[in-house]
Amino acid sequence: MFEALSERFESAWKTLRGQDKISDANIKEALREVRRALLEADVSLNVVKDFVADVQEKAQGAEVVAGVAPDQQFIKIVYDELVALMGDANEPLADADSKPTVVLMAGLQGTGKTTASAKLALHLRKQERSAMLVATDVYRPAAVDQLITLGKQIDVPVFEMGTDANPVDIAKAGIAKAKADGIDTVIVDTAGRLQIDQDMMVELENVKTAISPNEVLLVVDAMTGQEAATLTQTFHDQIGITGAILTKMDGDARGGAALSIRQISGKPIKFIGVGEKVEALQPFYPDRMASRILG
Ligand code: GDP
């Protein structure tokens, strides 16, 4: 996924190869390449500007280190900044003191929200944390059926009230049932639309107010490039998210969303989706991602 980005970065390092130290003059071209690399990868413009400014400041303040070539020194600066941009360390899913931990899943239709809900439930089960899925997409019977099917596949209970009930009532009843059953974590799957839509936002806000979730995870499709940044901004401003799951990281997206989400919302990516199967979910590690990006 990051081949193009890695190649572009390679051109940035090249401009410093053979120099004896980093200087204001020779860093200009390298910074220009870094900027180009990030923009081509669909990283949001404001994020790119801040990132390049930070790298420039660090590079200009860098001391000459004996035995370390300037290109290696510059790579280390970019690497550290990439890790910082993505949030330094993995941030695990909340684990509330009083059961159940409530996770509200938000996002547009088709991003992989329902699949991610099931993947998360399986991930928790593997950690000996019991989970329950709650189906609140009352607009699409197929969405409820999809969750039921996935629940069976991973042996996790699915709470549903069909499509005649209201999402707030379903979510509340689901959590009450989970509490009665001693379930550790409830994952509430919500309705998405193809585009951001006021009705969807109001409904989501109502559900959020009614259930006070410990986590509001925005599911973002990595394939959507720049739109991922706008989506994150809108959901965070209107609903308030606590983190994101970036799906379809196995595809051939240019990867910019991975770098924009944290800067835009101040909230971390907690997991990435790397395939259609229910097992295809991984915790997000900024350092591993930065290494992948640098190739
Ligand atoms: P929802 O409408 O947001 O609930 O989306 P779904 O969970 O129904 O997923 C939409 C499509 O994306 C389905 O075909 C999923 O199999 C696929 N999908 C979801 N997550 C991933 C992922 O991480 N990688 C790939 N390649 N496909 C995914």
TrEMBL record:
It comes from the Bacteria. It is found in: Cytoplasm. The keyword Methyltransferase does not apply. It catalyses: GTP + H2O = GDP + phosphate + H(+). Keywords: Cytoplasm, GTP-binding, Hydrolase, Nucleotide-binding, Ribonucleoprotein, RNA-binding, Signal recognition particle. Its EC number is 3.6.5.4. Composed of three domains: the N-terminal N domain, which is responsible for interactions with the ribosome, the central G domain, which binds GTP, and the C-terminal M domain, which binds the RNA and the signal sequence of the RNC. Involved in targeting and insertion of nascent membrane proteins into the cytoplasmic membrane. Binds to the hydrophobic signal sequence of the ribosome-nascent chain (RNC) as it emerges from the ribosomes. The SRP-RNC complex is then targeted to the cytoplasmic membrane where it interacts with the SRP receptor FtsY. Part of the signal recognition particle protein translocation system, which is composed of SRP and FtsY. This is Signal recognition particle protein. It comes from Leptothoe kymatousa TAU-MAC 1615. The lineage of its organism: Bacteria, Bacillati, Cyanobacteriota, Cyanophyceae, Nodosilineales. The chain holds residues 1 to 295 of 494 of the full protein.
